[in-house]
Amino acid sequence: MKELRPYQKDLRQKTIDSLLKINKLMLQLPTGGGKTITFVDLAKYYIEQGKLVWILVHRNELTTQTSSKLTDFDILHSVIQAGYHYSRFASCQIVSVQTVVRRLSKVRPPDLIICDEAHHSTANTYRKIYEYYPKAKIIGVTATPCRTNGEGFKDLFDKLICGPSVKELISMGFLCEPKIFAKPLSFNLSELRQTAGDYNDKDLSLAMDKQEIIGDLVNTYLDKAKGKKAIVFAVNINHSKHIVEMFNNCGIKAEHLDGTTDKVERNTILRRFRKGETLILSNVNIVTEGFDVPDCEVVILAKPTTSLSMFLQMVGRGLRTFNGKKYALILDHADCVFQHGFPQQDRDWTLKGKKRNKKDGIFKDNIRIKDKKTGELFKRSDLPPNVTDIELVELDIDDLRMQQMDNLLNKFVNNGFRPGVAWSEFVKKVKKPTLSDITNFRIKAGYNPKWEYYKKVEFGYLEERKN
Prior knowledge:
Distance between the termini: 43 Å
CATH architecture of the largest domain: 3-Layer(aba) Sandwich
Low-confidence stretches: 357-362
């Protein structure tokens, strides 16, 4: 049985303590942070207390992944899903949402429901399950506690418990640092229609499924990531197949997956990708969840999305650590970073969700694009249409934080304000400053080391010394 990491143990205990007082909570942990192991360990605890535990899943890949982890923890379990044998007396059930919603009166009522990928919980099928078993405790587990439209889960859960951020997991060595290159789109995404909270599929396909754009994907891969495993996120089936065709025509083994791919064929394709026989795996909404290939070093974003949740799920596929893997290479051909910021930037998750705001975040307005011919730098919004030879700029989140800090200090100090005003404005923008932020600001402002100490206490990095 795998030993929990310290932060997983902390989340486990906070969850157990909270469920003594409330019935429904959401547990947040970034993609690659070990959500499955954490909730499987929680399942083991409640099973040992004599409880019947359900683990609610919505995809075959999640069923397989969860079953494997339960076996690692020596937890006997059954599966409520078409094609599996159901044992009524098993203390742990992996439960397919689509299957059980039609059998609610025919199965044993659970004492605890653990919902994997709980950002889907707002769907009517999930709500029907929760409402049918009002006495059951519920733990919703997700990397992204916000809906496609940015709204939260205050109507479903009583409390949100957050684990370490992506940035913190990187600093602990549990996730890889992302190295991001962005190629801006030549059209304005705001001109596209939206359907169900995201870009209209037909409009997006017409805009993205073009030979020149797909050619850019291949050329960028050859320039930045040749020979490395890459996952491509495409708009739809035709777009994905066209991407695969162009990679194969260039002698790079590529395959396609979507929701209609036969189960046996899907497993065969995934096995070839895991073994490295296939280098490029292009997909449509398949490997955003329940897919672990830690040695995959590259994520190619060919699908623009308004959804912060979708963006973080996509880039998270490349952030897992692996021996010899130095960083995760993100090739953004869909304006995702310009729209949502960096994967590792600080996000203040709440059950209220993340409302979309064009001015949200300190990073989007500071990203610069370089014209290779002239060396001139542009904001994404100011890029002239005649500039076509654009350098793929590596984006560095720490440099942008320092730049924002310098800008605020210059703005307020030059206008007669004390540095503390600049600090207050910086904190409003980043929500929670990092240890480096606190140290750097203290040095730039010329403050006493005691200021740094008290700020580290204020933001939870140190415990206050008692006399």
